[in-house]
Design brief:
The protein is of the alpha/beta class. It has helices at about 5-15, 60-75, 90-100, 110-120, 130-140, 150-185, 190-195, 200-210, 215-220, 220-230, 235-250, 260-290, 295-300, 305-315, 325-330, 360-375, 375-385, 395-420; strands at about 25-30, 35-40, 45-55, 80-85, 105, 145, 335-340, 350-355.
Length: about 425
């Protein structure tokens, strides 16, 4: 039995037996950037030590372990469980240090901490000492999660995916600045004729970089305008739309374009292109990192799962054995159903997805479902059966694609566990 499997087994045993037990010492840690606060207690509500403040350093970590060991021996307790609340990346050095020392480490969700805070003393105030006790209280109730420490390859893949998510957000922000600040102010007609028509983005960027001023476009011959902004062969419908743009340029309602506006547009375009190159390079590195896992080929066999979606699912699930059932997997992506059923709404409330999990993974799965339902016959048939009799309901197509995305995630988890490739029988039900 390897170390990961042993840690997972111990976690399940602890979670099942911790409530009301008298053999565990619970150490709740409120994490911060420079120093942490710790609380020591037992699952049956005894406080053994509180308000230990220790540095975010090896010496501070050793002081924490020394006090925990002394309290365990003093009170005749068998095991020590350290509970952490994830805070940015500040908790990772402490957690990994404790795990390297073969300590038992779990974490509690931020949502659970927020909701449990007032239950400790009936007040809503927040402070570091109280939060450390709050974490220990949740661990004592068994409301904690397994702290997964990935191997080196999985760590690299997760780091790349997190970086890609940040870059995609930056890319979107730059696109919106161009669209809502630059074009809306200086060339508003571009929004209707080109951006909303779903035309290639490189054409819009070329206009922003070379001829933002519609009056400048009006002073050109159409062939000169076309040659200035097109860097590749264009289709007939694209040329037609560009001609429309050229014809309305003299009548544009945009503000006068000054030199600073041109410089801003060119700078935004340069930044956007650089971010896109970074995203492209990151995606290439993601595909390379994912090649180290045999499950990656299994995921690639699923319809709609390209290299990016497969890498994201692989990184999110990690070790498939750490999930006991499909409900836990669905909660990972926030695709689990929930509804507020109370009073008059107890019978009529419609369940919706919780959206409490990984948003980027959920979005990627819905995109994969869209591709699979359009291009793969048996999945298209499955999707059509979901829609049958409900075609006129508002938003039903998106809802069923979300349902299909949940199905694809469960299929992916199952294939990872079995190390098998996709078969059409996966969608027979």
């Amino acid at each position: 039995m390897n170390v990961v499997t042993e840690r997972l087994k111990l976690f399940k045993q602890m979670k099942a037996s911790v409530r009301g037990s008298e053999k565990y010492l619970l150490v709740g840690v409120d994490v911060a950037k420079n120093s942490h606060h710790a609380f020591f207690g037992t699952p049956n509500g005894r406080t053994l030590q509180k308000n230990l403040v220790f540095d975010n350093s090896i010496k501070g970590f050793e002081n924490l372990r020394t006090l925990a060991r002394d309290l365990r021996n003093q009170h005749g307790l068998d095991d020590v469980v350290y509970g952490l609340e994830p805070t940015a990346s500040y908790h990772k050095p402490l957690a990994e240090y404790l795990i390297r020392q073969e300590e038992h480490v779990v974490y509690v969700s931020n949502v659970a901490v927020a909701k449990n805070r007032a239950l400790l003393d009936g007040r809503w105030d927040k402070n570091d000492k109280k939060d450390a006790a709050n974490v220990a209280d949740l661990v004592g109730q068994g409301r904690c999660l397994y702290y997964d420490v990935p191997d080196e390859n999985l760590r690299v893949l997760r780091s790349l995916i997190a970086f890609r998510i940040r870059m995609k957000k930056e890319e979107h922000a730059l696109r919106m600045r161009l669209r809502n600040n630059v074009f809306a102010q200086y060339f508003p007609e571009l929004e209707k004729l080109y951006i909303r028509a779903g035309q290639p983005d490189d054409v819009v960027l070329a206009i922003a970089q070379h001829c933002l001023d519609p009056r400048e476009i009006a002073g050109m011959e159409f062939e000169a305008f076309l040659k200035l902004i097109m860097t590749r062969t264009i289709r007939i419908e694209q040329e037609k739309r560009l001609r429309e743009l050229w014809l309305i340029a003299p009548l544009s309602a945009g503000c006068r374009v000054h030199d600073a506006a041109k410089w801003e547009a060119q700078s935004l375009v340069t930044q956007l292109k650089a971010v896109r190159e970074t995203v492209k390079d990151t995606e290439h590195r993601m595909a390379q990192a994912a090649q180290h896992f045999p499950e990656y080929a299994c995921l690639l066999s699923i319809p709609g799962f390209g290299p990016i979606v497969s890498a994201m699912v692989l990184a999110a699930i990690g070790n498939p054995a750490r999930f006991e059932n499909r409900k836990q997997v669905l909660r990972l992506a926030g695709l689990d159903l929930s509804a507020s059923r109370s009073g008059k709404n107890s019978d009529s409330a419609t369940p919706v997805i919780s959206k409490q999990g990984k948003a980027a993974l959920r979005y990627a799965l819905v995109q994969a479902a869209s591709v699979a339902s359009a291009l793969t016959p048996n999945i298209r048939s499955y999707y059509s059966n979901l829609l049958k009799g409900r075609e006129l309901e508002r938003g039903i197509k998106l809802k069923m694609k979300v349902k299909l995305a949940a199905k694809l995630l469960i299929v992916a988890w199952t294939l990872m566990k079995r190390k098998e490739y996709f078969k059409t029988s996966c969608f027979s039900g």
